[in-house]
Fold this sequence. Notes:
This protein is an all-beta fold. It has one helix spanning 181-185; strands at 3-5, 11-14, 26-30, 41-42, 47-51, 63-68, 75-83, 88-91, 95-97, 102-107, 111-130, 137-139, 148-153, 159-166, 175-180, 195-201. Strand 9 and strand 10 form a beta hairpin.
Amino acid sequence: RPTAIFPGGALQLTFKPTAVKADFTLALSKNINLPLPTDLRLLSPLYQFDIRDTSALDIEIPISIQMQYTDSGRESKSIYFFDKSNASWVKLPSYNNVEEKTVTAPIHLTYAPLAIFGDARSADGIASWYAFKNCLCAASREYPRGTHLRVTRLKSGTSVIVTVNDYGPEEWTGRIIDLDKRAFQALGSLGSGLIYVNVRQEK
């Protein structure tokens, strides 16, 4: 697949061969000057890509963007693009690979400023399971008992809503939540043991 990589590998754009209709020029730039959102934390430099020959691509087929980060915080991480028509940052459907510290997202644009932002209103991390009450329940050290949480598997986007009914896991385990067996099975097989998830409080 045709790929463009920013020096250092912090930004990578991959094009499906079926999307490329002719040769084109791609300009990449870094540290552009744009306003930042007040409710999110910037976790990468600001990048910009610009495909000058827009007719050379079938933009119905998305470009795959991959960006790197170094932050070790648990806040959820996504790629956003800056919409100049509204002067606002727009979140792309993103996959955070926690182990590799990369975020991947599709985009249907030939020009866009890009950045990774962290959202403290939810967390990305490791979930495990335990056999307790066979319910849609979970153990959390961040939320009190009775709190409803939406737990989404990062790899698939599948989610389940659980109720906190226990305290745990301990911080030294590196996990952010433990799911009751029934809740874990809604996201993956028990044989997986550990999965990467996003945890967000349901209102």
